[in-house]
Amino acid sequence: MFMPKTVPMRKVKVFTIGFSIFLIGCASTRYNKPHTEPDGFGNIKWGTEISTLRDMEKVAQGKSSNSDLAWYTRKEDTLAIGKAKLEKIFYSFWMGNFESVWINFEGDENFEALKKELFERYGKALESEELMKKMDKGAREPSPIGHAEQFYAWWGKNADMALSYSKDRHRGTLNISSKMMSEERRAYEKQKEKEKRLKEGGS
Fold this sequence. Notes:
Layout: H1 10-24, E1 40-41, E2 44-45, E3 56-58, E4 69-74, E5 80-81, E6 84-85, E7 88-94, E8 97-106, H2 108-122, E9 126-127, H3 128-137, H4 144-148, E10 150-155, E11 159-166, E12 171-178, H5 179-202
Antiparallel strand pairs: 1-2, 3-4, 4-7, 5-6, 7-8, 8-12, 9-10, 10-11, 11-12
Protein backbone atom coordinates (compact mmCIF):
# COMPACT_ATOMS: atom_id res chain seq x y z
CA MET A 1 0.00 0.00 0.00
CA PHE A 2 1.39 3.38 -1.01
CA MET A 3 1.38 6.16 1.59
CA PRO A 4 1.88 9.89 0.93
CA LYS A 5 5.40 11.24 1.39
CA THR A 6 4.23 13.35 4.30
CA VAL A 7 3.36 10.31 6.42
CA PRO A 8 6.18 9.47 8.91
CA MET A 9 6.93 6.20 10.68
CA ARG A 10 8.37 4.24 7.77
CA LYS A 11 9.18 1.35 10.09
CA VAL A 12 5.62 1.11 11.43
CA LYS A 13 4.23 1.57 7.92
CA VAL A 14 6.20 -1.37 6.54
CA PHE A 15 5.11 -3.65 9.35
CA THR A 16 1.47 -2.53 9.06
CA ILE A 17 1.47 -3.40 5.35
CA GLY A 18 2.51 -6.95 6.18
CA PHE A 19 0.17 -6.99 9.12
CA SER A 20 -2.77 -6.03 6.87
CA ILE A 21 -1.94 -8.94 4.56
CA PHE A 22 -1.85 -11.22 7.61
CA LEU A 23 -5.36 -10.11 8.57
CA ILE A 24 -6.78 -11.37 5.29
CA GLY A 25 -6.33 -14.95 6.43
CA CYS A 26 -7.77 -14.43 9.91
CA ALA A 27 -11.46 -14.62 9.16
CA SER A 28 -12.37 -16.59 12.28
CA THR A 29 -12.26 -13.61 14.66
CA ARG A 30 -14.84 -10.78 14.54
CA TYR A 31 -15.61 -7.54 16.33
CA ASN A 32 -16.61 -8.39 19.89
CA LYS A 33 -19.52 -5.94 19.85
CA PRO A 34 -22.16 -6.92 17.25
CA HIS A 35 -23.18 -4.41 14.57
CA THR A 36 -20.26 -2.06 15.29
CA GLU A 37 -18.14 -2.54 12.18
CA PRO A 38 -17.27 0.84 10.61
CA ASP A 39 -19.21 1.46 7.39
CA GLY A 40 -16.80 4.26 6.49
CA PHE A 41 -15.16 7.16 8.27
CA GLY A 42 -16.08 10.79 8.94
CA ASN A 43 -19.55 10.34 7.44
CA ILE A 44 -18.00 9.07 4.18
CA LYS A 45 -19.29 5.59 3.38
CA TRP A 46 -17.06 2.93 1.86
CA GLY A 47 -17.26 3.10 -1.92
CA THR A 48 -18.22 6.79 -2.07
CA GLU A 49 -16.97 8.41 -5.28
CA ILE A 50 -14.43 11.19 -4.81
CA SER A 51 -16.29 13.28 -7.42
CA THR A 52 -19.23 13.62 -5.00
CA LEU A 53 -17.08 15.14 -2.24
CA ARG A 54 -16.28 18.85 -2.32
CA ASP A 55 -13.95 19.28 0.67
CA MET A 56 -11.08 16.94 -0.29
CA GLU A 57 -7.53 17.88 -1.29
CA LYS A 58 -5.35 15.41 -3.20
CA VAL A 59 -1.97 14.54 -1.69
CA ALA A 60 1.11 14.50 -3.94
CA GLN A 61 2.20 10.96 -4.83
CA GLY A 62 5.58 9.60 -5.83
CA LYS A 63 6.40 8.52 -9.38
CA SER A 64 6.30 4.85 -8.41
CA SER A 65 2.85 5.06 -6.83
CA ASN A 66 -0.14 3.06 -8.00
CA SER A 67 -1.98 5.34 -10.44
CA ASP A 68 -5.30 3.68 -9.53
CA LEU A 69 -4.88 4.60 -5.85
CA ALA A 70 -5.05 8.25 -4.72
CA TRP A 71 -4.77 9.85 -1.27
CA TYR A 72 -6.62 12.89 0.03
CA THR A 73 -6.87 15.04 3.12
CA ARG A 74 -10.08 16.75 4.17
CA LYS A 75 -10.40 20.50 4.65
CA GLU A 76 -11.20 21.47 8.25
CA ASP A 77 -11.20 17.81 9.32
CA THR A 78 -11.94 17.04 12.97
CA LEU A 79 -8.58 15.87 14.28
CA ALA A 80 -9.91 13.90 17.24
CA ILE A 81 -11.47 10.56 18.08
CA GLY A 82 -13.04 10.71 21.52
CA LYS A 83 -10.47 12.41 23.76
CA ALA A 84 -7.54 11.43 21.53
CA LYS A 85 -5.99 14.24 19.48
CA LEU A 86 -4.87 13.26 15.97
CA GLU A 87 -2.00 14.58 13.87
CA LYS A 88 -3.25 13.86 10.34
CA ILE A 89 -5.97 11.90 8.54
CA PHE A 90 -5.45 10.50 5.02
CA TYR A 91 -8.31 9.10 2.92
CA SER A 92 -7.53 6.45 0.29
CA PHE A 93 -9.59 6.23 -2.92
CA TRP A 94 -9.12 3.32 -5.31
CA MET A 95 -10.49 3.85 -8.82
CA GLY A 96 -12.06 7.00 -7.38
CA ASN A 97 -13.94 5.12 -4.63
CA PHE A 98 -13.31 5.40 -0.87
CA GLU A 99 -11.36 2.36 0.32
CA SER A 100 -9.55 3.16 3.57
CA VAL A 101 -8.38 5.77 6.05
CA TRP A 102 -4.92 6.13 7.62
CA ILE A 103 -4.65 8.19 10.83
CA ASN A 104 -1.46 9.46 12.49
CA PHE A 105 -1.18 10.52 16.15
CA GLU A 106 1.55 11.35 18.68
CA GLY A 107 2.15 10.72 22.39
CA ASP A 108 1.41 8.09 25.01
CA GLU A 109 -1.59 10.02 26.31
CA ASN A 110 -3.28 10.11 22.91
CA PHE A 111 -2.49 6.44 22.33
CA GLU A 112 -4.14 5.43 25.61
CA ALA A 113 -7.14 7.68 24.91
CA LEU A 114 -7.56 6.28 21.40
CA LYS A 115 -7.17 2.69 22.55
CA LYS A 116 -9.80 3.24 25.27
CA GLU A 117 -12.20 4.82 22.77
CA LEU A 118 -11.80 1.97 20.28
CA PHE A 119 -12.24 -0.68 22.97
CA GLU A 120 -15.45 1.02 24.12
CA ARG A 121 -16.81 1.24 20.57
CA TYR A 122 -15.78 -2.14 19.17
CA GLY A 123 -14.88 -4.35 22.13
CA LYS A 124 -11.50 -5.83 23.04
CA ALA A 125 -9.07 -6.53 20.23
CA LEU A 126 -6.54 -9.21 19.41
CA GLU A 127 -3.38 -7.87 21.07
CA SER A 128 0.34 -7.73 20.26
CA GLU A 129 1.53 -10.95 21.93
CA GLU A 130 -1.10 -13.17 20.35
CA LEU A 131 -0.70 -11.48 16.97
CA MET A 132 3.06 -11.93 17.06
CA LYS A 133 2.71 -15.62 17.89
CA LYS A 134 0.43 -16.07 14.87
CA MET A 135 2.77 -14.12 12.59
CA ASP A 136 5.95 -15.79 13.86
CA LYS A 137 4.52 -19.21 13.01
CA GLY A 138 4.68 -18.24 9.36
CA ALA A 139 8.15 -16.69 9.53
CA ARG A 140 11.61 -18.20 9.81
CA GLU A 141 12.58 -15.70 12.47
CA PRO A 142 10.50 -13.55 14.85
CA SER A 143 9.92 -10.01 13.62
CA PRO A 144 12.11 -7.52 15.56
CA ILE A 145 9.80 -4.72 14.43
CA GLY A 146 6.74 -6.50 15.72
CA HIS A 147 8.14 -7.09 19.17
CA ALA A 148 9.15 -3.41 19.44
CA GLU A 149 5.61 -2.12 18.80
CA GLN A 150 2.14 -2.41 20.28
CA PHE A 151 -0.59 -3.69 18.00
CA TYR A 152 -4.32 -4.21 18.27
CA ALA A 153 -6.58 -5.60 15.57
CA TRP A 154 -10.29 -5.77 14.85
CA TRP A 155 -11.69 -7.35 11.70
CA GLY A 156 -14.98 -8.56 10.37
CA LYS A 157 -17.06 -9.13 7.27
CA ASN A 158 -17.09 -5.48 6.19
CA ALA A 159 -14.13 -3.66 7.74
CA ASP A 160 -10.64 -4.37 9.08
CA MET A 161 -8.95 -2.10 11.61
CA ALA A 162 -5.41 -2.02 13.05
CA LEU A 163 -3.98 0.24 15.77
CA SER A 164 -0.19 0.37 16.14
CA TYR A 165 2.07 2.40 18.42
CA SER A 166 5.81 2.81 18.98
CA LYS A 167 6.72 3.83 22.53
CA ASP A 168 10.26 4.62 21.40
CA ARG A 169 9.07 7.08 18.77
CA HIS A 170 5.94 8.14 20.65
CA ARG A 171 4.01 7.88 17.40
CA GLY A 172 1.22 5.66 16.17
CA THR A 173 -1.23 4.91 13.37
CA LEU A 174 -4.80 3.71 13.04
CA ASN A 175 -5.78 2.10 9.75
CA ILE A 176 -9.41 1.29 8.88
CA SER A 177 -10.29 -0.27 5.53
CA SER A 178 -13.25 -1.61 3.60
CA LYS A 179 -12.86 -5.35 3.26
CA MET A 180 -14.88 -5.52 0.03
CA MET A 181 -12.98 -2.65 -1.63
CA SER A 182 -9.60 -4.03 -0.55
CA GLU A 183 -10.42 -7.50 -1.87
CA GLU A 184 -11.61 -6.03 -5.18
CA ARG A 185 -8.38 -4.04 -5.52
CA ARG A 186 -6.17 -7.05 -4.74
CA ALA A 187 -8.05 -9.20 -7.29
CA TYR A 188 -7.79 -6.44 -9.91
CA GLU A 189 -4.07 -5.91 -9.34
CA LYS A 190 -3.44 -9.66 -9.38
CA GLN A 191 -5.22 -9.93 -12.73
CA LYS A 192 -3.26 -6.97 -14.14
CA GLU A 193 0.01 -8.56 -13.04
CA LYS A 194 -1.02 -11.86 -14.65
CA GLU A 195 -1.88 -10.12 -17.92
CA LYS A 196 1.44 -8.25 -17.82
CA ARG A 197 3.41 -11.49 -17.39
CA LEU A 198 1.50 -13.14 -20.25
CA LYS A 199 2.16 -10.15 -22.50
CA GLU A 200 5.86 -10.12 -21.64
CA GLY A 201 6.07 -13.86 -22.17
CA GLY A 202 4.45 -13.62 -25.58
CA SER A 203 6.61 -10.76 -26.82
